[in-house]
Amino acid sequence: MTIRVMIADDQGMVRTGFGVLLNAQPDIEVVGEADNGERALEVAGSLHPDVVLMDVRMPVMDGLEATRRLLADGPDGVPKVLMLTTFDLDDYVYEALRAGASGFLLKDASATELAEAVRVVAAGDALLSPSITKRLISEFARLGAPRGPSRERLDELTERETEVLVLVARGLSNAEIAAELVVAEQTVKTHFGRILAKLGLRDRAQAIVYAYEVGLVRPGE
Fold first, then answer.
1. How far apart are CA 144 and CA 180, in angstroms?
2. What are the residues whose beta carbons fall under 8 Å from the beta carbon of 180, sequence distance 6 or more?
3. How far is Cα 72 from Cα 2, in angstroms, rounded to an integer?
4. pLDDT of residue 24
5. Under 8 Å CB-to-CB from 196, ≥6 apart: which residues?
6. Burial class (CB in 10 A: 0-12, 13-18, 19+), 139
7. Using CA atoms, how far apart are residues 145 and 147, in angstroms rounded to an integer?
8. 200 alpha carbon, distance to own chain's centre
9. The 3-state secondary structure of the chain, one letter per residue
10. Residue 83: predicted pLDDT
């Protein structure tokens, strides 16, 4: 299956360069471009890409607000968003993930890193580097008490699904969770799929944010 990508960035050279690199991949096709957040919403609405590469800083409407609006209707039928940034900046990490972004990619990423990032988020995983994950947890620690969604939906999870969610929030991969629980990796994937469905979450990044915000996991645990 070909992954359909849209690139939203106010720099024409970035759009062109990323487009050339991605179109060279046998399983990826760039189907559209936008030079600001408002235009990104229009293009995404008409082309329905699988993944949107969204620059953080753009005129008219920035990437954070465009991401919030693009993903506001919930997890069904919307693209995954991979935020593009020149700098690995603290201020953007937390808000972008709360807005529903699936991860971050620095603009100086190599062709291999770019293509792999698109594949990762298209598959429903989060692209969070160790440095970003560490910073995200630090932000939750700074905020203190849980915020955001209520814990009521947690009651819909089975005991094993809750275990899996806790381990996901601690940054473990599916393979590591499988080893921890002594089950097959496919079993972990099945549990995680049910967790996303029951909680109405889009992907791993949102699951991590949710687990911390409802207090299921606390920094340092």
1. 28
2. 167, 172
3. 25
4. 94
5. 75, 124, 202, 203, 207
6. middle
7. 6
8. 14
9. CCEEEEEECCCHHHHHHHHHHHHCCCCEEEEEEECCHHHHHHHHHHHCCCEEEEECCCCCCCHHHHHHHHCCCCCCCCCEEEEEECCCCHHHHHHHHHHCCCEEEECCCCHHHHHHHHHHHHCCCCECCHHHHHHHHHHHHHHCCCCCCCCHHHHHCCHHHHHHHHHHHCCCCHHHHHHHHCCCHHHHHHHHHHHHHHHCCCCHHHHHHHHHHCCCCCCCC
10. 87
Give the residue among 103, 78, 107 at the shortest CA–CA distance from 92. 103
Q: Record the tokens describing residue 54, joined without a space.
A: 């969204």
Structure tokens at 187: 């079993």
Q: How confident is the model at residue 188 (pLDDT cuts 50, 70, 90)?
A: very high
* pLDDT (tens digit per residue) in 145-157: 445 556 777 889 9
